[in-house]
């Protein structure tokens, strides 16, 4: 279970950061962290991960402060944490030292699945390939909480599909996943719940099954919450 209470994070007077009064994410849920650019998704994931100071509030993971749970969390970001002078194989060996539950066999299987050459230096890889290494490592750490910030960024259509299939096939029921993405239609089929951010607040919290029962589309709900104006371009273009 991930619990946030009265969490406030401010960047400066212009930027709202994050404001969450109460949020509980039960163990085993796959949660989509959604919203327009700048709505607060990364800030939220970083706050759960304990990165950056909160102005007030508390984040608990399985009842403990996040600092006591680092061994149980994998944070997979676009920035990546790999050491680019290493090969994926060496990187796996490096991670085994720090993560006692690191599963080398699973890591190598995942690298193969994504067609990653395990013997070339990571710095010679493309952006998408580097990010795949990060995903393989993140899912092999034996972490119970997996946070993914935009795992689809820079991934081709086939990789995105392969990634989703991989995730569904290897996840156990005791793993909790938070995944931010702009590919709403693609992740809609794998998430249990959608948190929709707008200006640093959760403006929508929906279980996908409930939306389906009500005959609603997640992308439509998001449009309403984000206040998307279909005709905005018309006025903007008049200025040019
Ligand atoms: N280090 C920072 N200093 C000041 N403001 C920041 C900082 N990081 C983020 N912000 C601001 O906080 C708000 C939320 O940013 P955040 O990166 O969480 O959005 P996001 O939903 O992940 O966006 P995107 O989809 O574009 O990646 C934005 O207004 C952004 O400008």
TrEMBL record:
UniProt source species: Evansella alkalicola
Name of this protein: ABC transporter ATP-binding protein
Matches recorded under Pfam families: ABC_tran
RNA-binding keyword on record: no
Upper lineage: Bacteria, Bacillati, Bacillota, Bacilli, Bacillales
Listed GO MF terms: ATP binding
InterPro entries per record: AAA+_ATPase (IPR003593), ABC_transporter-like_ATP-bd (IPR003439), ABC_transporter-like_CS (IPR017871), P-loop_NTPase (IPR027417)
Record keywords, A-Z: ATP-binding, Nucleotide-binding
Domain ABC transporter: 2-224
Presence of the UniProt keyword ATP-binding in the record: yes
Top-level taxon: Bacteria
